């Protein structure tokens, strides 16, 4: 990164970073260079256009250099920045949290009308998110529906600390409770909506995943057991006593799991009400009712 160290302007730092990432074979070098340079220099896209000759100090250049070095060896750009945007909101990450993915916005879009209608009709909508990670799903819903409240459950204490932080940063802490629980084990009460993006990769497939997922997302967030379906079986078997009358269950699934997951929930007495594709056209979200 010697070139960046010598280059003290905003545009120079960006070019050097982009060229370094391109040389290392990073997939979107210009985008990642921009995210890194902007973040560590505290500048915006507008600054890059309006003041390309803005001089960056030695400390900023050193931080950019360190970040570029991490990116060249495969660390995902949002892990380096420490946050990722989801549903237009900023979510801080930690080693214990999955990076929330754009595909999961499909799930939020699918359930949002139900959350709004329930909140209007009942005066509130109580949501339980199983395996909450950063809190991305329930916090996105709370940001859209003022009369909604949520419990975000996770078995990982580190994830819950991050989810609590995100709720606070987003001004949603008064309507969000982070709860340590092995699925339903410590959950009490009934909810209008149970939502989950559980770990759904078969154990044997984890080592074949893309390196940025396999090496940087926590395996606890990925591993769904022998066939990837264990969490769905638990949720299908135990959800009923936690659902309000007319309550629904919404799940993210792997691209090839629609038939299996629908079968698991049918056997437990649910019918598939809605199925949604993600932006790539893959099956991604299922909505069940009794
Ligand atoms: C695929 S990640 C989803 C994270 C977040 N909901 C999202 O969509 O970005 C699955 C989450 O389930 C949690 N998890 C794994 N096993 C669990 C269990 N037995 N009980 C509760 N949560 C669990 C993981 O810690 C992880 O946060």
UniProtKB/TrEMBL annotation:
<dbReference type="InterPro" id="IPR050320">
    <property type="entry name" value="N5-glutamine_MTase"/>
</dbReference>
<dbReference type="Pfam" id="PF05175">
    <property type="entry name" value="MTS"/>
</dbReference>
<feature type="domain" description="Methyltransferase small">
    <location>
        <begin position="123"/>
        <end position="205"/>
    </location>
</feature>
<feature type="domain" description="Release factor glutamine methyltransferase N-terminal">
    <location>
        <begin position="13"/>
        <end position="82"/>
    </location>
</feature>
<keyword id="KW-0949">S-adenosyl-L-methionine</keyword>
<dbReference type="InterPro" id="IPR040758">
    <property type="entry name" value="PrmC_N"/>
</dbReference>
<dbReference type="InterPro" id="IPR007848">
    <property type="entry name" value="Small_mtfrase_dom"/>
</dbReference>
<dbReference type="GO" id="GO:0102559">
    <property type="term" value="F:peptide chain release factor N(5)-glutamine methyltransferase activity"/>
</dbReference>
<keyword id="KW-0489">Methyltransferase</keyword>
<feature type="binding site">
    <location>
        <position position="183"/>
    </location>
    <ligand>
        <name>S-adenosyl-L-methionine</name>
    </ligand>
</feature>
<comment type="similarity">
    <text>Belongs to the protein N5-glutamine methyltransferase family. PrmC subfamily.</text>
</comment>
<dbReference type="InterPro" id="IPR002052">
    <property type="entry name" value="DNA_methylase_N6_adenine_CS"/>
</dbReference>
<feature type="binding site">
    <location>
        <position position="154"/>
    </location>
    <ligand>
        <name>S-adenosyl-L-methionine</name>
    </ligand>
</feature>
<feature type="binding site">
    <location>
        <begin position="197"/>
        <end position="200"/>
    </location>
    <ligand>
        <name>substrate</name>
    </ligand>
</feature>
<dbReference type="InterPro" id="IPR019874">
    <property type="entry name" value="RF_methyltr_PrmC"/>
</dbReference>
<dbReference type="Pfam" id="PF17827">
    <property type="entry name" value="PrmC_N"/>
</dbReference>
<dbReference type="InterPro" id="IPR004556">
    <property type="entry name" value="HemK-like"/>
</dbReference>
<dbReference type="GO" id="GO:0003676">
    <property type="term" value="F:nucleic acid binding"/>
</dbReference>
<dbReference type="InterPro" id="IPR029063">
    <property type="entry name" value="SAM-dependent_MTases_sf"/>
</dbReference>
<comment type="function">
    <text>Methylates the class 1 translation termination release factors RF1/PrfA and RF2/PrfB on the glutamine residue of the universally conserved GGQ motif.</text>
</comment>
<protein>
    <recommendedName>
        <fullName>Release factor glutamine methyltransferase</fullName>
        <ecNumber>2.1.1.297</ecNumber>
    </recommendedName>
</protein>
<keyword id="KW-0808">Transferase</keyword>
<feature type="binding site">
    <location>
        <begin position="131"/>
        <end position="135"/>
    </location>
    <ligand>
        <name>S-adenosyl-L-methionine</name>
    </ligand>
</feature>
<dbReference type="GO" id="GO:0032259">
    <property type="term" value="P:methylation"/>
</dbReference>
<feature type="binding site">
    <location>
        <position position="197"/>
    </location>
    <ligand>
        <name>S-adenosyl-L-methionine</name>
    </ligand>
</feature>
């Amino acid at each position: 990164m010697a070139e960046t160290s010598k280059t003290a302007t905003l545009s120079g730092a960006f070019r050097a970073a982009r060229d370094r990432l391109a040389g290392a074979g990073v997939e979107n070098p210009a985008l990642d260079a921009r995210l890194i340079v902007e973040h560590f220099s505290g500048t915006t896209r507008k600054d890059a256009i309006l003041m390309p000759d803005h001089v960056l100090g030695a400390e900023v250049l050193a931080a950019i250099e360190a970040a570029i070095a991490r990116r060249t060896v495969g660390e995902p750009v949002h892990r380096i920045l420490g946050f990722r945007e989801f549903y237009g909101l900023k979510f801080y990450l930690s080693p214990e949290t999955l990076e929330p993915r754009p595909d999961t916005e499909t799930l939020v879009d699918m359930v949002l009308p139900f959350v709004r209608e329930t909140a209007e009709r009942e005066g509130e909508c109580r949501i339980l998110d199983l395996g909450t990670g950063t809190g991305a799903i329930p916090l996105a819903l709370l940001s859209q529906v003022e009369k909604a409240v949520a419990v975000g459950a996770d078995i990982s204490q580190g994830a819950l600390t991050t989810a609590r932080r995100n709720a606070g940063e987003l001004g949603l802490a008064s309507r969000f409770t982070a709860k340590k629980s092995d699925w339903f084990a410590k959950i009490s009460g009934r909810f209008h909506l149970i939502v989950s993006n559980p770990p759904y990769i078969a154990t044997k497939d984890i080592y074949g995943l893309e390196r940025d997922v396999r090496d940087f997302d926590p395996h606890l967030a990925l591993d769904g057991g022998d066939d990837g379906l264990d969490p769905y079986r638990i949720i299908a078997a135990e959800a009923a006593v936690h659902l309000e009358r007319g309550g629904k269950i919404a799940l993210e699934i792997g691209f090839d799991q629609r038939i299996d997951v629908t079968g698991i929930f049918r056997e437990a007495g649910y019918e598939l009400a809605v199925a949604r594709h993600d932006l790539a056209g893959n099956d991604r979200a299922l909505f069940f009712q009794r």
